[in-house]
Design brief:
The complex is a heterodimer of chains A (270) and B (427). Chain A is 70% helix and 1% strand. Chain A has 270 residues and is an all-alpha fold. Chain A is built from 12 helices and 1 strand; from the N terminus they run βαααααααααααα. Chain A is globular. Chain A has helices at 15-20, 22-36, 46-65, 75-102, 104-107, 116-142, 154-178, 181-196, 211-215, 218-231, 238-262, 266-269; one strand at residues 2-4. The longest helix of chain A is centred in the N-terminal third of the chain and has 28 residues, at 75-102. Chain B is of the alpha+beta class and 427 residues long. Chain B is globular. Classes of the chains: A mainly alpha (270), B alpha+beta (427). The interface between A and B is large, with 35 and 43 residues. Strand 1 of chain A pairs antiparallel with strand 4 (103-108) of chain B, so a sheet runs across the interface.
Chain lengths: 270, 427
């Protein structure tokens, strides 16, 4: 039996319902992936070209001209290992934030778990992420760098990124459907966040006293973790990862609660 | 199964906040200050969109639905009828869980599918096949169910040759057929349908109706919202009339349709204005500014009834004299069938300036019902200078013109033609 009435209070989104509709999530992700490169000449190669471009630019400017230190590996590999997870994070977060506004014609016409809408980019951008790994693989071959055993922890880092962008994505998308300002602010917030993350510079630049606090920015642990695991730049930065996980899990929880609380209004304010 | 409740609705209400009145600022300083304050004002406004605490009678709140209660039994087909803005769509949106009620509650027993639109989620870049799966799962099917019904869906749609073509290359008819075909193969216990039938050509509409009739006859519960009284009569056993957000009648469908078409009109209770259309001032271009419904003496006419004498007064503006220009008045029914076109023609060419022309219709032969009015100014070679195909609605009330005890009503006939019967002379 289904009961429809005004709901109040705090609730997390319904897992049972999401499981019931899991096929829909699959097709929505599939749609997102297929549509992105339809009717392009280069197709999926674009997933390689845009990060490649950034890697080249950053290598020239920060590595070549400004001589930013790179933890003992060539700067190109160093920045690529940071660029790839960053690109995924930026794309999935932006995608999730704008998702509700773009999906208005879906949720004003039919019922399904609304939370799928911001979650779709979190999954669909994984495809680009996986493909862009080719760049890193080629660079590692070129410079003869082998990954360390710590690479088994990569799924953990990936989960951390996904949780973070899902959490903030749910929160920001729910906010953006009501306050369209979010959408405009996103452009430069993402840029600020990139320079705040150790994408073009090594985390050793952060004062030791501030290191743990810095760790609460999940991308710090993720990016440093990627470098340690794949480029063998040092031991896994577990302190950063632990702090980052607190933020990731917290944002997922709070984002989920906020989304659930506001989703009843989406159709009215969209 | 009969007797079991499928849908029960109790005291359902839904409030919307409409735009607040803009403040106007006389001075530059005032305007600047307002500009600086506007983020705060906007914040309050946007926040208020979903916040109704303690705002019972605030002037900027409208209750789209208030205290609606009814029950639908399993296997019943119920039609919901009402004028535009009566709350039909809001009710459907609440029952399909798209929006939440402000108060009250509804219980739905059984698996429900709602069709407020055909082809939700269709993406132009995806192929027909991909869209069938996407659309099917959005409507609540599992992948395995779509797999199982895929061939039937494709068959029914009649576009099997194009299943691997992106939908954007389809004609709009093909797209609608494919989309409806997916929807038609849902097998919910309860089906909630909004005027999906308003799309597509006549043949396709027939197909849709047939499919829904099937659903109803197979013992599914159907809740059907429509302007199409014929469809309501064919499909539904019971009818609910919504009026101004509340339920004004629940009962047998024929009775409901009958009441709806009449209730529209006893002369007094009809609040409809005699001004059917009033447009913004034209900037020296050709335009129709106003359409009034008057009686023969030129007084505002309310409560129009079958066989009334009517004077339609069209106020227009023309920048210059136009010998070949004329004013045109059209009457259409809910199916968009043009019932009458009245053209001022060469008899009354358009004159420069703002003027009016009258079109007198003696004994308006329309049966009771709602009719759509189209207005236009045109050149004699059928080129429009100005046109509004949906300028407004006239509501014709029933009158027992044939003294048969049954006033002519839209659901039985469109026209009440004055006539006389006579028998062969007896020897």
């Amino acid at each position: 039996m289904l009961i429809i009435e005004p709901k109040g209070g705090l609730k997390f989104f319904g897992w049972k319902e999401c499981v019931e509709y899991r096929d829909l999530l699959y097709f929505m992700v599939l749609r997102d992936v297929t549509v992105l490169y339809k009717q392009t000449i280069l197709g999926i190669a674009w997933a390689l070209l845009s990060p490649l471009f950034s890697v080249v630019v950053f290598s020239v400017i920060f590595g070549g001209m400004l001589h930013v230190p790179s933890e003992g590996v060539p700067y190109a590999v160093f920045t690529a290992a940071g660029m790839l997870p960053w690109n995924y994070f930026a794309q999935s977060l932006t995608g999730a934030t704008n998702s509700l506004i773009q999906g208005t014609n879906l949720f004003t016409k039919v019922y399904f778990p609304r939370v799928f809408i911001p979650l779709v980019p979190v999954f669909s951008k994984l495809v680009d992420f996986a493909i862009s790994f080719l760049i890193l693989a080629v660079l590692m071959l070129w410079y003869h760098i082998a990954p360390s055993w710590n690479a088994i922890f990569l799924p953990l880092l990936l989960a951390m990124m996904m949780l973070t962008s899902a959490g903030f994505g749910m929160f920001l998308s729910a906010l953006a459907i009501q306050y369209r300002d979010i959408r405009h602010a996103m452009n430069f917030v993402i840029q600020a966040l990139m320079y705040a993350a150790p994408v073009v510079w090594p985390v050793t630049k952060v004062p030791v006293a501030a290191r743990l606090w810095y760790g609460f920015y999940p991308m710090a642990g993720v990016i440093e973790g990627f470098r340690a695991a794949l480029l063998n730049t040092g031991p896994m930065p577990w302190d950063l990862i632990a702090a980052g996980f607190v933020t990731a899990a917290g944002s997922f929880l709070l984002g989920g609660l906020y989304f659930r609380r506001t989703e009843r209004l989406f159709a009215d304010v969209a | 199964m009969s007797g079991k409740i499928a849908i029960s609705v109790e005291g359902l209400g839904k409030a919307y906040r409409i735009g607040m009145e803009e403040q106007r600022h006389e001075t530059f300083v005032g305007a600047c200050a307002a500009f600086l304050r506007s983020p705060f004002k906007n914040f309050r406004e946007v926040r208020g969109l979903g916040n109704f605490d303690g705002a019972e009678d605030a002037s900027d709140i409208i209750w789209a639905l208030k205290d609606v209660s009814f029950e639908v039994k399993h296997g019943e087909a119920v039609g919901i009828i009402g004028r535009n803005g009566a709350g039909k769509s809001t009710l459907l949106k609440i029952l399909s869980r798209i929006t939440e009620p402000t108060r009250g509650r509804a219980e739905i027993h059984g698996r429900v599918a709602s069709l407020l639109e055909v082809g939700t989620g269709f993406h132009p870049d995806l192929t027909g096949r991909e869209n069938v799966y996407l659309n099917g799962t959005i409507l609540g099917m599992k992948k395995s169910e779509v797999d199982a019904k895929f061939d039937q869906i494709v068959d029914f749609s009649g576009v099997e040759k194009f299943m691997d073509t992106p939908v954007k290359r389809y004609s709009s008819g093909m797209r609608v057929r494919l989309a409806f075909s997916v929807a038609a193969h849902l097998e919910p216990e309860i089906l909630i349908v909004d005027e999906v039938l308003a799309v597509g050509d006549a043949e396709f509409q027939k197909k849709c109706l047939g499919k829904m009739e099937n659903a109803a006859s197979q013992g599914r519960t159907v809740l059907f919202v429509s302007h199409n009284m014929e469809a309501v009569l064919t499909l539904c056993g019971r009818g609910v009339i919504l009026n101004d957000g509340g339920v004004s009648f629940i009962g047998d469908a024929p009775e409901a349709v009958h009441r709806y078409q009449h209730a529209s009109l006893g002369p007094a209770e009809n609040g409809q204005s005699h001004v059917i259309w009033a447009g913004p001032p034209s900037n020296g271009k050709y335009s129709v500014d106003k359409l009034e419904v008057l009686d023969l003496d030129g007084r505002p006419k309310r409560g129009l009834q079958t066989w009334d004498d009517v004077r339609f007064r069209i106020h227009y503006t023309a920048p210059e004299d136009l010998k070949a220009g004329s004013a045109i008045l059209e009457i259409r029914d809910y199916r968009d069938t043009r019932l009458a076109v009245m053209d001022s023609g060469l008899a009354l060419p358009l004159k420069a300036g703002s003027h009016f022309v009258d079109c007198v219709v003696p004994r308006l032969p329309l049966a009771a019902g709602d009719y759509f009015i189209g207005l236009g100014l045109a050149l004699s070679n059928a080129q429009w200078l100005w046109r509004n195909a949906n300028a407004g609605i006239i509501v014709v009330g029933g009158r027992d013109v044939f003294a048969s005890g049954r006033p002519p009503v839209h659901s039985r006939m469109l026209f009440a033609v004055p006539h006389q019967w006579s028998a062969s002379p007896t020897r």
